[in-house]
Specification:
heterodimer, A: alpha/beta, Four Helix Bundle (Hemerythrin (Met), subunit A), Rossmann fold, 2 domains, 8 strands, about 50% helix, disordered N terminus, disordered C terminus, B: Four Helix Bundle (Hemerythrin (Met), subunit A), 434 Repressor (Amino-terminal Domain), 19 helices
Chain lengths: ~300, ~450
């Protein structure tokens, strides 16, 4: 899967010219393994939004390994860290499809993370794989969210089930499921309004949507996908906890990885809450949604810019 | 959810009780906690580094205030330094001497530019301006439609032209505003990555084309370590004038605010605090400081209270609030104390059981001067029994305080509401010093502006 990483690198080429690839330099074996080096590694992890706690744990693990394995060359350090990170991230986990009848995917998240865009891209991708798809315009709150999904529907060549702005999203879910059943559709991808996870009423609304889906198709939704913005910091942990609580999130789609943010917070999420990342978003084009490849992700964590703030 | 820094430091300093001076060793230990708190709050690690160094320098060798524990003292210093770093409140839009005033909104995807364009329009309309929303996001599907819908909802005219470049639309919108007699143009632009040279260049061209009076960077309050990269790039390439921090109604600690201020030196002017289109507030540095440190708790109330007035008075205040013996006189006294302590909003947030319930209350601090003048123009009896103030007394008070009768009336009305609200809290047990917060009554929030704005 060189695809994503090389594309990511290509996307960053221009910026990279200004960046010192500090870690690579730092870890070419020329450096002594000392406290300063550990501290710098800790900063690299924290700077990638891995979070204080997880970063400290990772570096402490590294210290132990260095001792146990009697390592003296610093070029082995990222390797050890990567191993540990891959252990946390676990295997690649593909989307789960229902064996019979339509698979229902519910897409949730806070405002502005890219839910609608991601759905457009996911629809395009699944359609390419030969699936019959409909989209459900469950964001009945935000101005023009339905129009936005319809444009993506046109682009991907899939039908959009919708009601009026302000309609009950649970009713949209109901409509979409019935349309899917009668038209022999493989996958329903349902959009929902962005909601901050601490808004009780909105989270209850989501619970209701899920309940309606469950009632119509036992075992559904087959995937509840939490869309996370890679630029988000430690608050993403709270988001994951609350959405899991309310909607039993089954996977994460990490968007906006084409910027300079690393999305390291998913390490903490996987470690603490055990929600795997399934897809990543790396641009606004219909093809810019890719399966999550843990090894590429881990490599990108250590590939960091020099911001030069003092 | 989060353990506040105050609590953590309390633990750290347990063994230090009674020590008079902060030694370097004490401070080092405290700074570890401070560093962690700031990092967990998403303050950029480089900003944390220099910040911690600064605080350490200030803290070592300081006499611990008599009424504070060493932990509280360190928190006090950290809190003050954050507020200091955030700078003074600058929640104003530069209004051009010759209209239209042009405001350019820029930022990453999903930060909330379109929504906040509409929120700004609502705010400016309230201030007597006639804003125009200009739809310069020609890329995101339905972005223009979104702005049009928001324009309808807020009764703000929206300017858009099909098949033109964002630069052309921006320029045409100015001419349109002039022709229609609209005095502010708010330009909504497409979200873009700070490393996308083509799109950053487009912004530079828009800037050159319309000479905006304000370039505001719209930033998601939940942003992590990368906030500095984006803010720095936008600032370097465009020269931003201020920041709108959005989604602050979430439970993020909001450390990005500190990072952005540190790297751009630009003030955070406004904060988005809700889904509704009037949910835009002036930004309060002291609130974000408490938030970053996780201090919305009783401990902090006590700590701050001790700073400005003694324990007994604090208890007396709490008792009076609970028993509804709180008079306008007490209120005036509180105001004096509060002036010493920081903002009204922060003290309200710290009242046990009140903080969370009052989240939606807007506080306009500049009005405190009027309130003081009005109360000072009352007789002692009037202050105790505001119900006795009828028309002729109102007239006298308004003359004495240089305010209008309406303002006097409003203060009285709102004080009455405030007392009612306190009754509610007392009734639900929320005011208990050791209460576990208000139970039941969920979603029922007093819709009151305090203090009497």
């Amino acid at each position: 899967m060189a695809g994503f990483f090389s594309q990511l690198k290509a996307g960053l080429t221009k910026t990279r010219q200004n960046f010192v690839q500090r870690v690579e330099e730092l870890l070419t074996g020329r450096r002594k393994i000392d406290e300063e080096l550990y501290e710098e590694l800790e900063e690299v992890l924290i700077g990638a939004d891995v979070g204080f706690k997880t970063s400290i744990e990772l570096v402490n693990h590294l210290r132990q390994e260095v001792k146990a394995r009697k390592i003296s060359e610093s070029d082995q350090l990222t390797g050890i860290l990567t191993e540990k990170i891959l252990e946390i991230l676990g295997e690649e986990k593909p989307l789960f499809f229902s064996a019979s009848g339509p698979s229902i995917f519910l897409v949730v998240g806070v405002n502005g993370v890219g839910k609608t865009t991601t759905i457009g891209k996911l629809a395009g991708r699944l359609k390419k794989d030969g699936k019959r798809i409909i989209l459900a315009a469950g964001d009945t709150f935000r101005a023009a969210a339905i129009d936005q999904l319809e444009i993506w529907g046109e682009r991907a060549g899939v039908e959009v089930i919708k009601q009026k702005e302000g309609a009950d999203p649970a009713a949209v879910a109901y409509d979409a499921i019935h349309a899917a059943k009668s038209r022999n559709v493989d996958v329903v991808i349902m959009d929902t309004a962005g909601r901050l996870h601490n808004k009780v009423n909105l989270m209850e609304e989501l619970r209701k949507v899920k309940r309606v889906i469950q009632r119509e198709i036992p075992g559904a939704p087959h995937e509840v996908l939490l869309v996370l913005d890679a630029t988000t910091g430690q608050n993403a942990l709270q988001q994951a906890k609350m959405f899991k609580d309310v909607a039993d999130v089954t996977g994460i789609i990490l968007t906006k990885l084409d910027g300079t943010a690393k999305g390291g917070v998913v390490l903490g999420i996987q470690g603490e809450i055990k929600i795997p990342v399934k897809w990543i978003g790396i641009g606004e084009g219909v093809d810019d949604l890719r399966p999550f490849v843990p090894r590429d992700f881990a490599a990108a964590l250590f590939d960091r810019p020099e911001e030069g703030i003092t | 959810m989060f353990q506040g820094l105050a609590e953590k430091l309390q633990e750290t300093f347990k063994k230090l009780k009674g020590k008079g001076k902060l030694t370097e060793a004490d401070v080092n230990e405290a700074m570890r906690e401070v560093r962690m708190a700031l990092l967990e709050a998403d303050v950029n690690f480089r900003v944390v580094k220099s910040f911690v160094a600064k605080v350490k320098e200030r803290a070592v060798g300081q006499e611990v205030l008599e009424s504070l524990s060493p932990g509280q003292h360190v928190v006090k210093i950290v809190h003050e330094e954050i507020i200091d770093l955030m700078g003074s409140v600058a929640s104003k839009i530069q209004i051009a001497s010759k209209p239209p005033t042009v405001i350019l909104l820029v930022g990453l995807q999903g930060a909330g530019k379109t929504t906040h364009a509409a929120k700004l329009a609502v705010m400016l309309t309230k201030q007597g301006k006639r804003p125009l929303l200009a739809a310069c996001d020609v890329y995101r599907p339905a972005a223009i439609k979104q702005l049009q819908v928001l324009g309808e909802q807020t009764k703000t005219p929206v300017f858009s032209v099909a098949e033109r470049s964002p630069v052309e639309i921006a320029q045409a919108s100015l001419a349109h505003a002039n022709a229609q007699g609209l005095d502010v143009v708010i330009l909504d632009t497409a979200g873009r990555l700070h490393i996308n040279e083509e799109l950053m260049d487009e912004l530079r061209k828009i800037k050159a084309g319309v000479n905006p009076h304000e370039i505001l960077l719209v930033v998601d309050a939940m942003t992590g370590q990368d906030a500095v990269n984006a803010a720095k790039a936008f600032h370097e390439q465009l020269g931003i004038d201020g920041v709108i921090l959005t989604k602050l109604d979430g439970d993020t600690r909001g450390g990005a605010a500190l990072s952005i201020k540190a790297v751009t030196q630009c003030p955070i002017k406004f904060a988005g605090v809700g889904e509704k289109l009037d949910a835009l507030e002036a930004f309060h540095p002291d609130r974000i400081a408490s938030r970053i440190l996780g201090m919305g708790d009783v401990l902090t109330l006590i700590e701050k209270a001790q700073e400005a007035f003694d324990n007994k008075k604090a208890q007396e205040m709490e008792r009076k609030l609970r028993k509804q013996e709180f008079t306008l006189d007490d209120f005036l006294e509180q105001m004096q104390q509060i002036k010493k302590m920081g903002s009204l909003s922060s003290i309200l947030e710290m009242l046990p059981g009140v903080g969370k319930s009052l989240k939606d209350i807007k506080i306009d601090e500049k009005d405190t001067g009027y309130i003081e003048a009005i109360i000072r123009s009352m007789t002692p009896e009037e202050r105790r029994k505001p119900a006795m103030i009828k028309d002729s007394r109102k007239k006298r008070i308004s003359r004495g305080s240089g305010t209008s009768i309406q303002e006097v009336g409003r203060l009285l009305k709102q004080f009455e509401q405030f007392q009612k609200m306190m009754k509610q809290f007392a009734g639900s047990g929320g005011m208990g010093m050791l209460g576990k917060g208000k139970k039941g009554n969920k979603g029922k929030r007093p819709n009151l502006r305090f203090p009497f704005a």
